[in-house]
Structures
1.
Amino acid sequence: MNTAAPSDLPYLDAFPAPSHEAWRAAVDKVLKGADFEKKLVGRSVDGIRIEPLYDAASGARAFRAQAGRWHVASRLDHPQADEAQALAMADLEGGAEMLTLAFAGARAARSYGLVADDVATLDRALDGVMLDLIRLRLDPAPQGRVNALMVAALVEKRGHAPSELSIEFGLDPIGVLASHGSLAAPWPELGRRLAAVIAALKQRGFKGPFITVDTRPYHEAGASEAQELGAALATAVAYLRALEAQGLSLAEARDAIAFTLVADTDEFLTVAKLRAARLLWNRVQQACGLTPKPATIHVETAWRGLTRRDPHVNLLRGTIAAFSAGVGGADSLTVLPFTAALGLPDAFARRVARNTQLILLEESNLWRVADPAAGAGGFEALTQALCEQGWSRFQDLERERTDDQQGMLAGLINGHVQQGLARERVASAKAVATRRIPITGTSEFPNIRENAVSVLEVAPVRKSPGQLGSTVARNPGEIVKALLGGLNRSEALIPPHDGLAIDALPSHRLAEPFEALRDKADALPQRPTVFLATLGNIADFTARAGFARNLFEAGGLAAPSGDGFAQNGATDLDALVGAFRQSGAKLACLCGSDTAYVDEGAAAAEALTKAGATVWLAGRPGEIEATLNKAGVSSFIFVGCDVVETLERAQAIVSA
């Protein structure tokens, strides 16, 4: 609502400025006594109040280091070097300007990833890629230290000046611990190795950033926006402490750190989360006595939001998430291809993912405003609320202690992080099952006749552990030289000893319960059918028949409906029962108006039961529940019911 002073548009002054009271009076008139809070006020999973209307507002702003376009990133994640190179070149020629190296073993590689055990193979995968003209980033992965040194060796082999390159080295041992459940050495030793690698890379002229605080493992495990922000801050502070303990100044440690955050389909909360992340990182720097520098933030669209069913809907999800990331101030962005949940995306899916960003950049011109959300009351309020909630979660993590650890590491070791995320997963699973969180194309408006999409025919990578590493201690500089001489990855590893082990965070997509139901139905010799026993005229049963068909098809059960069985203002029960017998179905669902249920529901249920049907009813039975149950209705489907549990029971009936 605009309550500002008269603008520079004179014609606006001819109209009276609306007041909040006048708006509320108009709303109450439309609501007709309904509860304003329940109807129009929402809450995020963190409990943040989301109003239907906000006044214009202003808040603290944290800009990117460089205004302008964000960098379009594509993933280099094909296991075979030659195939990876061809896909990477197509991406770069098609408009990408950043490549993300996802080595085999990285959580984000999804069981694929580049298999490169020596510099020659890495060189082949990047053949033709001009490292001085693009940006390169490494996805956090086990053996991240060796991955970083292999890239450094490749740069030296090609004769580039490291200071002129833009490379994010992706070191994130805490993220690897969270996603994989183990580290090869105690944390003090890992801190020493981390500092040694950073020192060696800086000595060669690389500018970094060297460490990536990656929140994807937490998001995939169910994290809310505030939990993701809290994990990011606590992890970053753990790295600041570790590097300071190894002799780096806080400013040097700060400059070594970049962030990877997630954008999902909640536009407002995604924009607010990214804006809040910058403000919170500034606050951490101030608390450390530093003059704040802008965070470097890479954003990836949400894995947990992708679906395997009706995957073309993922195009819409990717577009919303990409738009939100651009408005929220991402420095670089990866849009996951729409087929990513089905396998390794092909060239077409990768092209569409690139073009999603290019259209937002070139045609929508999102990059031309530094902070488009500034001044909008909704975004400002949500940003401030997430700052408060994120800081609270950060403080909660900082209070965690184990025998010799504190903060994020302690929270992972003692299970505090896992328990908090598990609670969020349970809550989100319930919301998905009841369709309070709808998944278009999967739990809502499913398409049981969907066309197949193509992915690359590549087997998942199953790498053997190989050697335990060299028994000869080498510093990072010596390893780079040895890699240039042909040293194999396994020989550059340090044998594990007395490492850390925790319960790894699960990687979870919201659609998985419904996908499992669809897979089970598709595995049957023929698609099972539910008979929709419609009562009365077509106008009377269409709404509930549509609801029932939508619900059953979400579990892979066909539920066709026709023009009904109306006769003289009622239902021809003989025709209805005859159609049921002809359908071959075992489950029948009554669909009609409340009046029809009162007048004909019991008779229809009794007739269908005698014909051998298990009878359900679409809608809430109200006062006639006992009568319907006595007539044979054994279950009711309605808005807010547990659809997953309902479909499991339906499948048991139709497949018996």
2.
Amino acid sequence: MSRPQDLHRPSFSFGNPFRMISPKGSYLSPKLLELLNTFEDTLAKRLSKLKPKDRKEVLGLSWMRLAMESLCETHTDIKTLISNLDLPVCDWDEKWIDVYFDNSVKLLDICNAFSSELAKLNQGHLYLQCVLHKLDSSEPKQFSGARSSLDGWRQQINSKNRRLENCFAILEKLTQTLDLPKVKNSAKGKVLMRAMYGVKAVTVFICSIFAAAFSGSAKKLIDLQVSDTYLWAEAFADVQTFVNREIRSKLSSGIATAVKELEAVDASVKKLYPIIHDGANPTGVEGLRSCVSDFGKKANELSQGLDLVAKEVDGFFQIVLTGRDALLCNLRVNSKVSNSMKVKKNVEGQAVR
């Protein structure tokens, strides 16, 4: 078996499960159909929950946390399905393994990019804390330091993240290789490939949203066309259309970021900055306190939301990493067993001679 390095992924359709999975009429047991239908039905319900009741919730950090949590659950489900299929790694086609390892590397790179962006935003929060400290006394002499911190925050937030820029290229490659290797003479293999197509489609969808939100650009936001023969296709199309349309609408209005809490802090900064400009305070002490209070509340909501999203991104990274490690371990074990069998056969052959 070749060493796993490069990767692409699967595609399939679903109407009549016998016809779509086994077009030549090969038999799919009731157990396999139940496993597949349960997986796809669960995915459909999970996607439906991702559609916000209010469009204003789109790209709020609480929604982004939910989206990443949903992605983690979907990847956990495919692990469970593989276990329930009882399809040993030694029975996996080499193409499947190559695809899996290549895709897993890409997903780890995407996770690292998102983590670096979230870290950058959290570092920016230090500037906001400094502003609050400077303005705590409402003394005009502190205004200069507060303005300097606000300038530092803007520079931090607007700085380019090269890792994030690479996400779009990675996602494009994942999209181009959405179809999985074809499966022959393996009902379990066809069920696995079909389920993995769903996992990959949802992964590309959610990661595309995160990349667009963090970069402030909807130009490379991905719209996937999924065959309506999948049980989850309608829910997928519904949430993708709703969310992508809202992101494009937000970013076309000229705002710097589509992330709701980050946009709220930016709006609060724009109100606060003129008040402390040149040491002037035309709104009076009460006006300043009210503005600072609102600013502090928005900054705190941003920080808490970022921490929650970062936790889910790290969780997704660990799921991908442990899955990759588990497969590598199985490959090593099977390789040793295979070599052991070869040695045994050679010894037996020599004994016969």
3.
Amino acid sequence: MSVPADYRLMDVRSGPLAPAADPTATERGAGDDSHWSARPKRWARTAWTPAWLAKRPRALRIAIRSVAILMLTLFAIWLILFVTKGRFLKGPFERFATSQLERQVDIGGDFQLYFAPFNVKFYAEDIRIANPAWAREKQFFTAKTVDTRLSTFRLIFGDRILRFANLDGARVALEWDAGNKRNSWTFGDPDAPPEPLELPVIQRAAITDSGVTYRDPRLRLFADIDIDTVKASESRLDETIGFSGRGTMRAQPFTLTGSLASPNETLAGGKNKLTLHAVGLGNTLDVAGTLPGPTELEGADLKMQARGANLSRLFDFLGVAIPDTRRYRVTSALTYEDEIWKLSGIKGVFGDSDLAGSLAVSQPGGRVHLKADLVTRSLNIIDAGPFVGYEVDRLDKMGTGGAIKIVGGRPRVLPDSPLRADALKRFDADLRYKVARVRAESFPVSNVDLTLSLKRGLMEMKPLTFLLAGGKVASTISIDSRPAVVRTAYDIRLSPTRLGTLLARFGVEESGTTGTVSGRIQMVGHGDSLRQSLASSNGRIAFVLPQGSFWTRNIQLAELDVGTFVQKLFEDKLKKPVQINCGVIAFTVRNGVGAADPILIDTEKNVVLGRGGFSFRSEAIDMAVRADGKKFSLFSGQSPVAVGGYFAAPRIDPISDQLLGRAGAGLGLAIVATPVALIIPFVDPGDAKSAQCGPVLAGATAAAQRTTKGKPRDDVGKGTTAKSEDGKQSADGKKEQRKKFLGIF
């Protein structure tokens, strides 16, 4: 009898007995196994094990068999899906997608999900993915048909690679909520932080009657972009991908057009050529270059050209607030690497100034971050005006004169353009900006070096340094927009600077002047403009004059010592230096009003004293400066020189009421007594008390000033602006109130 090789003779009690190499002999009980015939037995089919597998360890045999079973199972699943096209998975897919996205997902028509043969094919008709309840559009994504091929192996490892995408009638609605805290493309937990928009990589596409809408209520940006019909056949795109759009930005319309040319080269390892032209908000933007793939930005090699009336309007598209600028024109290389847009090799101009450097824009944690390193060789002071709040249009039309406004019949020079505090809270920035030279008429400024940091509404310019007439100004300025009212802190230091160089453009020649000045400004104010901040500020301003010389002409004109001035004029000693022992010009600022605290300059022959102050609120000046002689002088005005007017239009009045009063008194004495008495009111006994220079050089307040004998000074005021007029009684018998300074106190 012939028995198949995969059969074994089985003991009905204990299993297989021996290989059936010779079944006939075995049945007869031949051989040495004489007991064989006595045991009950039967023939049975067992699992066939190849000889090569039979020689392997048992564990390996089990593993190989398990893999074989798994492969057979997968093949069975593949076969079932391929035959049925996976249509029976429509319901489970809707429920699974709805659960994962936490958005309602519906498919109204045909549905297919299967392997064809190795890539995953997904096909759906009338598909809808809902938007969050707060969104204006009910549906985030809709399409008449979606036909895609996904790379199976890459999908396993988390890569979203679409080998093919056929979209018909597809619309995507991208929206931000009113507070910019949620967006429609962040799925899952509605309270989770918003995520950046990430597009899948699409290697081939066929798109018809499709587009995208974008809404950002805070930026007031609304865009509607249509994608031109794109055809595909096998592995090639037959046409250029074109797109066009329109929308509004802050109620201003804009348009854009563009295309992806030569897309067929993508699959062969080539690159797509992108062109984009956008016009809006007075800006024109052109981008041209290549992309690795139709939706791949990583490794993009682009060139950008931008021009317009105001660069800040271009940054509005990013939700970024920068100071206004005059008309600009810039070019740069544009790349995208590691989720960072990089503008390198920037070259351009704004107004009459040049600009170069680099800029990087990223979005770590969904928050926009700017990192810039910019350089200007020559900065026109007019172009710097918008940085501190001056109106661009006025500067364009009027030059530096545009910085002055007439309000209520009074000139104003402090800028009042509001700071965009809300915008500062929405992005972060790190900026390094250097200016080699500033073109200014009044002050020689150069070597500006600004390091700026902005983090969640706190802006710090730390440090801001520059050279002023050879002296270094080092500043730390912080603007905190986090509180309800913006808080600004100023700390500005002036290192010793030569007066001759500093005042050279005001008629003071450097020859004969060796005096220097140093100073510090420390103030804190509140408000969303420079004017509001200063008008509410509190702090101190102090400038110290160490020992040095100053031209005689300036000193004598200031003190109006007629006799000494005429004498030196005839002796041709007009330029003989007058020695300054020490001096301080300081103001205490309270609620926007600065009071002299003190003004005290001790010279070789005089002590110069000042009273009064100024107001950041009204920008008015009301001060009086007088010089008391240390030596006897026969002809001396001994009356203060009034400094008044406004910041934008100061005036000096040497003919004070006191001087006119003395002249009247002298004339009266001359009439009733003798003509010689005419000069009596003009005699200066020369009893001015010299200053102790220690407190002066320390910039101390008026209360801390002393004479050389250590006695408190009684001629430097009390650090207030009120003028004493306590003596007269009013008509109703009450004492008159002290005179208000500038209508404030």
4.
Amino acid sequence: MEPSPNAPSSGRKRKNLSSTGLGKSKRLKTEKQEVEAVECERPSSSPKVSVLFDCLKQPITLKELTSLLHYVALGKGGGIKKPSWCGVQQRRRISGVNVVVVEGLTQSHFYKHYVTLKHLRTNYTSRITFMPSSQNIASEVFSSEVPRCEDPSVLQNPALRSHPVIMKFGSERRGLTAYVLTQEDMIKYHYPVKGPHVSFEEFVCTESSDRVTDRSPLFGLDCEMCVTIKGNELTRVSVVDADGTCVLDELVKPANRIINYCTRYSGITAAMLRPVTTTLRNVQHKLKALLPRDAVLVGHSLNSDLVALKLIHRHVIDTSLLYRREFGQRFKLKVLAQVVLKKHIQTKKMLGHDSIEDAAAALEVAQYFINTGPRQVVERHLEQLWGEEITDTPTRQPQSLRFADVLQTRQQSVAYFGKRCEVALELSNQQWHNSDKEVLASFRKTTHNPFLSVLRFSSFSDHIQQCDAPQEQLHHRMCADLGQMCVVFAGPFPEGFSETEVKRLFLSCGPVRKIKMLKRTVRLHAQVEFQLLEGAVLALKTLDGLILHGQVLKVQRPVNSSVLDLDLTLDALMDDALSSRSIYAVRSKHRVAVGGNASAKVNGHTPGVGVPGALSKKTTNGLPPSGGNVTTVRLSKEEAIRETFGQLGAVERISLLAKPSTHAWIKFKSCDDKPTALAEDHRIGHYNICPCLTPPHLRSWTASAETTAAAEEHDSENNINHQGQEMELMMRKLDRYLGKLFRSVPDCTLLVVLFPGYNGCQEQLPGLCFLEVKSGSGEEQ
């Protein structure tokens, strides 16, 4: 992983307030499986949003975040371009958007309380720096302007632009998977589904696969029912294949006494059922044997047919929902067949309906929709089916292109939960509360989750405003603590050892930000501050015990309150979802000159004499000179690293630090290859290695010199501890709230948690944006 060279810096650990460090350490080690499950075992068919690696070098703005929300909700069919900074997989399966704005928190708050915020660091696999905004974020999400549609045919025809079919499916022609109902739609339209639903406990499940493709076979299905003393029961079932050939047609004997044969509609009479012995169970077995695992059932209001069959099938296309009308109204199959297929079914001459004919008609109507595409279907039949006319003259754009208004036009609900403030939303869609607890409780009590919901947690902002120290000073204090994580003390060094020689030695562990020579003691020591936490870890692993001129070098961390729980933070960082497949490597260059001709021994060996990592002056990192071609040198280094680490597993990406370029982040394709690499005792070939600890969106764990210098000069120690304890408790509570919220939203919901940062008069403190699509339990299509 490569830290961003431009993103603001932050990062930290937390203090232990309640339980013992030993218990927490054991708990943290059990989290690795949870993280790997998110990173490596997510079903391929599940929707996913991820930040593109190259885009982690820059923080995102509020405008870029809202562009993602627009694309997820409206897609290309709504005229929205895909955001350039993130990737979106299976966008059509995303069923809703939930945004939580935690006011008052910055990126540094997250890394300072990193161990405490278990839910955020384990369940959210995408994390990127957020540029603070002076705007009301909650209001801006609703009021952000949706780009105008660029499709000329849709632009020029208001009847097309706001048509329910176009609004749902877009204007482009797509494969059949675009029209298969999602799990959420099946629940919404009362389809029998798997799960703890009492009314579907006795239903039989077909052996359908987890996902279907655009080449999956279609089968038309239609059933006829009668009324028994127990309600509606099945009397006939018919199935046709993609060619319209009948592959199953069975009369079924109801289990209970019939009180109405519904002959006018079903065509079933008492005489027809008298000799029938086929039961519902027989038909269920025949259907399970007939349908392939990737079969897609097609029908008109198919939910009633499946309920009558007491059958659960995961992949269905409902023609009554393809040819959509406003306000939930539906066309009859008879009307669709007549207008679209030019066929007459269910005529008065017939005694009831013919289920074979109806199944074939529904299948053909669906095939026509899929092959023709939504826009042409609407254009061809707009007047006959929807009673509107197409005008060729350009018309005005909708009066409002605000995101919330566009969603409501599409019959997608929006809602705001939080403290009373100026939100660009109708009052009927706002719920005001005084505390974060009330906000969460109100959202969880909502019967139907809105498609777009924004929750505003304001307790942290209120708490920080009550503190004696301003926001900038609190941030500087955190950054100073974070900087201590990257500091080591080393010594004693031989007499005359210079700062340049110390830097050259410690560069074998990572980029060095600052060195301070300590000459106040009898022997010479140094304080070394690395840019990356990995550097400090490697220094402790590889340089502690180094022999220089017969003297044993001791490398140790500073002892102060900010690093007391650092071991817990390191354990958690090693299992971070952002680095679950990555390691940090640096080419060793132990070339130390002491007093001109003097030699230095590295772990008992003289560099350049049989020591891995000893380099010739005629080589560059062990490779021949490139003749000044910078591009060739960079590629050669990447190839050398790939050759070394490719022996342990497939390497997905190699990222070189710009300067010095001997430091690299190696990401493997498999989660299993990282432990294999780390089993080599922190060294592979010429490289010192350790787990990745720096998140890819961070430039460095250390802050600028000005920031580090601004410490807690004016606050007493008691006041600092008191404020730290209060913030720690609030962070624990926040993580519980966010965990409950995550569990309460439906599957396939895009969740966004935003620490908005701080936009002060003299300084901007970066925020942090978390992204995750809640993965379903395998039920989604």
